[in-house]
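Handout, section 4.2: multi-component inputs.
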Amino acid sequence: MKERSVTHATFVIERNYPTTPQRVFGAFSDPAKKRRWFAGDEEFKVDSFEMDFRVGGSERSSFRARGLTCTNDTVYLDIVPDRRIVIAYTMTLGDKRISSSQATVEILPRERGSEFIFTEQAAFFEGADGPQMREEGWRKLLENLAQDLTR
Amino acid sequence: MLSQRVHVDRVFHALGDPTRRAMIEKLSEGPVSVSRLAKPLDITLAAVVQHLQVLEKSGLVRTEKIGRVRTCRIESKGLSVAERWIADRRSLWEARFDRLGKLLAEPD
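Output:
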């Protein structure tokens, strides 16, 4: 059987931050600030982080987790100060590109802070989920189910 | 997004029944015919077919008619590829935006 090699998906994440849109935007435009929230994690070791925040500019970050190198290659497509940032990015695991996406950040001024909307439209490529990931997927699902049933 | 959620609901619904879980367990050992799948279950063939329809709809099981025999096999692909990828990517960004929130809560 011939299988499709791309899976398309869109997801949205919303947040309310009790601060001004200017400060939220600043956490994206200032490389030192962005690196802190974007790349800082105990599980991920940051190998490199470089960004050029302007339309047409690029950003490249490299992490290591569980022995695998993960690289993000980003291009800034649209920037409206304090309001909107649109990027295109690919994610590479080891030497395999696993996805390419467009992601949009919208920042809306609200009475008590900022509404924050992140929308990612992704194309996931084939072969990135090895047998181990599938197994983990199953285990996770069954664990969730067990939790659901014992609630 | 909505269709993904519907899919997850179907998967949970499908796995929420002990007979269907027994069928999945049997199928995880390898493909079998419908009648062989039905044999240890002590239910009618019609009931097995109904359960199979639920499992097929959820994308957990695929059936295929070869000659006069309908063979069932597990379909783990539907589960892992889409859901796993999307869930992983989403949780990656969720963790980032939690850290962003913490950073924004600090004084300048």
